[in-house]
Amino acid sequence: MVDHYPVLYREIIQFFRYIENGYLVDATLGGGGHSFLILKYNPNLKVVGIDRDEYAIEIAKDRLSEFKDRVIIQKGSFKDIDILLESLSIKKASGFLFDLGVSHFQLKLERGFSFQREEFLDMRMDRSQRLTAFDVVNSLSEQQLYRIIRDYSEEKFALRIAKRIVDYRRNKKIETTRELADIVCQVYPPNLRYSSRIHPATRTFQAIRIYVNNELNQLETGLEKAIKLTEKDGIIAVISFHSIEDRIVKHTFKKYQQLKILEVLTKKPVIPSKKELMENPASRSGKLRVVRRL
Fold first, then answer.
1. Model-level pTM greater than 0.85?
2. Is 200 in the same domain as 241?
């Protein structure tokens, strides 16, 4: 039983409903919410679930246990899906699903993804890697921080935020999420701090998380490999949560549509319905793009 329905789950079920057999690769398994529903509504389909987070994998194993031999779970990054599938002797997949958001349960862990609580600045999806958000904010130059915050979040106050971070750390290292969030808030003019529906630190945290986990490069690589590994009439679905990710997905799909390798099934990205927004307000920024392999 899924205790928390994943973003755009109704639409995902519909787009994958015609895949009757073969393997669907859930490239961002998380807690297994999407996979649970796909397995439930596609009784002859098998799922290969991939995630970098060992904690997520344990949750998914428990959630998907009723499907037994229809599920294969592997720790790894979707940038290596070709290697992971080859290790399983799977040459082609019937579909791929990428949900690029942070899982709701990961936000509740002490990983430094959220500024709602006082936590160490970590932000690693894979706890075995060395680079953390603490390293980023305390070691990189003002210019490097500026480019990260600007390029990975389109934050209009990126230069001011980078300068404030460097000024602050001259006296003390920035160690916690609240500490960093407060620094960012101080940069925002008072009339803008509380006028938006998102916290002033949201974009900065997003940018640093993307950098720590190398998310955009992994997305580009993973998408290219997924397209090559999808069998004829297979489906690739991607849920993104900000404009930079969505742009990469859109341009990649458009390129392969022009090469007559893909058919784009979503002329515009699918966004959450009013009903879903009431059920799950956190879904508000989700955008779904779907293609079919020709």
1. yes
2. no
